[in-house]
Fold:
Amino acid sequence: MSHDHGWKQVGQVKLQDGFSFHPKLSEWLLELTTLKPEMDVTVFEASCGEVNCPVEEVKLTWIIAGAEDKLRLGRGKEKLLKQDVYLAWKKKMMS
Ligand SMILES: [Zn+2]
Structure:
């Protein structure tokens, strides 16, 4: 059953300060992407309000050179793996 998902903002941090919901995510972003420690990154989660919905997706956004850029990760924010960041960034760079 398909239905629409909206993005809900769940936080914003300076990358060097780390994410409260994940001990390694900021470290991986600094290692695998071109994001800089002083950048503010905003975190969004896909949500539709349905308790049993299996959809879990995260979107990170930041401002670079005056424009918004983003990275989408197909897993819940607490469960993200290093390979999710690696593959999402690789895909983004190829598109
Ligand atoms: Zn849903």
